[in-house]
Amino acid sequence: MLDHIPKEVLIKIFLRLPVKQLLRCRCICKTWYSLISNHNFISTHSRYTIDSNNNNYLILRHYSRSNKKERFALHFDDDDMFSEYQELDFPLESSWDYFEIVGSCNGIICLTDNHSHILKRIVLWNPSIGLSVTLPLQRISYKVSNVVLGFGFDSRTNDYKVIRIVYYSTNDDSLMVPPEVEIFELSRGTWRINNSASVPAYDVSKYSSQIVLEGAIHWVGYYSPRELTIAVYVVHDEEFKEFRMPDEISGTALQHLSVMLCCQLLSIIQYKKRGSRLCYESCCIWVMNEYGVHDSWTKLFNVVVTGGIGKVLGLRNNVEVLLVGGQGELISYDPWYQRSKSLGISGESCSFYAGIYMESLVLLKGRKGSISRYVTVQG
């Protein structure tokens, strides 16, 4: 009976189902299993999910010193108190206290357990289906001084790429420019040196987070500690370019800048510090209202919180700023009324990460690499 349902009808039905129900449907019959596991369907399902824009959850990661646990959980983004919806099982153990999160894209999270990115694992994790891919180890050179990672999606080839920018040191321990760029494509499962692409004349800051926008990865870059730029890597073209920062930011210390998305606009966080305090006194948010146009930079608002700021995580659906306070407490800040409220979660400031959660079937069939299943999908 089930085999008589037209394939086109099945696809329309399956595209509207949550991932957990799709995983159950794979067990009904061989036809359904084959259809849902098909790479073309998985790609179509991802595009449908993105276009439907039903992103009501944020995924939050933090590390608690008292519990000595790295914790991932989904939270209601529209809820004033940021209520927890579901804790995610994450039994992978890092060689450090917690993984560094490189970035996330279309429901896939890229993590590394070596904070210099040189020797240890790089993992792609899909929390909605409980699968991960451990990337093969890269070749090592004793002259490597620093490595910056990036993670993005090539919409033209429906492939995910990890970018590894390798900086080598000279005999006097200065950085050699340009660096070597290595690319890992999920579909191929191997690293390759990017000989054909342009290499940046600037360095990418190891202090900067990354964001993905307009098919490109963005970081804070610099020519010198006081000559700053927005570093841009176009994922499909595998080319680097750059955007000028707002003129008012010139002179800001490199470690006091980072990038973020604000209402789907490229944004810069400019932290301000006073004295010897470990946390920041305040910060301001700049947005590029027209992508790639320098004159469209606008200072959006200032953020001032009693007790200081440890780290800004992003903007919530209710247009409040999600941040970590000076004592490691999670705070939601209303920039229009200049009010803040504690959300009842504390941890190590640097360990906090928040990103849009999107259900995805990517990694379901497994791509080349080491595949692990470690989450039980429950109803």
From TrEMBL:
PROSITE patterns reported in the protein's UniProt record: FBOX (PS50181)
Superkingdom, natural source: Eukaryota
F-box domain sequence ranges: 1-45
Pfam families: F-box (PF00646), FBA_1 (PF07734)
NCBIfam families (alphabetical): F_box_assoc_1 (TIGR01640)
Name of this protein: F-box domain-containing protein
